[in-house]
Amino acid sequence: MKIKKYVAPSMRDALEKMKRDLGTGAVILGSRKISRGGLLDFLGREMFEVTATTEENVLLDRKKAPAGGGPNGSRISVTIGDDGPVTRPAAADFSSVIKSTLEQSGTPAPTAGAGGLSSGGSSNVHLLRQELKELKSAVGEMAEQIKYQKMPALPAMLKEIYKKLSGIELEERTAVELVQNLYGRYSEKEYGNRELVEKFLIDEISRMIRVVKPSPVREKAPLKIVFLGPSGVGKTTCLAKLATSKKFYGDRRVAMITADTYRVAATQQLGTFSEIADIPMEIVHSPRDLTRALKHHQDKEVILIDTAGGSQYNDKLISELKELLEAADPDEVQLVLSVNTKPKDMQHMIKRFKISQSTRLLLTKFDETLTFGSIVAVVRDSGVPLSYLTFGQEVPEDIELADPLKIARLVVNNVF
Ligand SMILES: Nc1nc2c(ncn2[C@@H]2O[C@H](COP(=O)(O)OP(=O)(O)OP(=O)(O)O)[C@@H](O)[C@H]2O)c(=O)[nH]1
Ligand SMILES: [Mg+2]
Predict the structure, then answer these.
(1) Beta strands in 267-309 (DSSP E)
(2) What is the pTM assigned to this prediction?
(3) Region annotation Disordered: residue ranges (predicted)?
(4) Domain spans of the chain?
(5) How confident is the model at residue 283, as a pLDDT?
(6) Are the C-beta atoms of residues 18 and 4 closer than 8 Å to each other?
(7) Residue 76: half-sphere exposure toward Cβ, Cα within 13 Å
């Protein structure tokens, strides 16, 4: 009997190959996972092998073989239709097929009575069970492989880069996209060039990050900026940094307003800073209070408004923030988030706290983490532009404008 083997990075690919070659009348004789080194190896994963023949071959073989089969004359074959593998009664004596497969592959066929194959009923049931078990595991492997379908068998150098990108917590989708683009754009020799790859990755990642410049300070009406977000992320510190930094509003006529009256320490924190920096500060308890305070500071160039931090799941906080924003009618809403936060939580925080069209992301605590890959997808998917980054507790030094190239370099620096 003519038996063929199909090897591919996934079970589905191996089955596809077989289908293309043998058509829908293909009969699977066996399947297994194998390890292959070198270039065929996909990201260090195993390959899959399907051994198959055609139904015609099986029938031919059967004609040659002595009559027999299971107790009910039932025999099993697995054929591939358009909907994938199906088991059905067929005209093949499976044990003889297995025997001849083993003979062809040089493995001695087990003898009947030694726990091996026989034409007896119980061993057929055993075979059937075993085959079902293998099919079950093959389907599981296929599912496992589906997420890698988009990737071709990769040259070793690209595999290394992919692994490194995953190591810096870049979301899988982004890592795959980058490696695919690298693979598509350059020759093997070129993507072996470290500098070229580094530049490519920095350029690509920087294009994924959208930033926004600060709104210009106006002559007639003060620029109003609200800071909001989860607790402890650095909202008040950011406000203080922007109020005093000469790069930002340090030379402007600034007023500070805090609506964070939940914690006594919060008003004290800004109060102390107000005294040291000699910047006027107001405490407001309601949206109406806020309107009054804003009127009072009409002569200022910039008004910075602090709010209470809290959980994104706190509906009361979110609705109070909405009311404050209505009263403030701000030019900018700085949604402050720490880069230490888990990407999934970050995504949810953005969804909940993005209650204004003027929302921008202010990312803090870059000094407290080593890998920045995870923020790329969060920022990209959020559709909210980045405004500032902070990288320490020092006021006013540790803040700067968000720069896509700088962020991309931070991300990629951990790759090389
Ligand atoms: N390492 C580091 N610490 C920071 C940074 N920004 C702020 N912090 C610190 O984070 C802590 C909390 O800062 P706050 O400004 O009080 O945070 P907040 O968001 O106003 O907190 P709540 O008002 O309680 O919600 C303080 O110890 C800050 O010094 C940063 O970029 N890096
Ligand atoms: Mg605060």
Answers:
(1) 281-283, 302-306
(2) 0.68
(3) 63-82
(4) 4-146, 156-208, 223-413
(5) 96
(6) yes
(7) 24
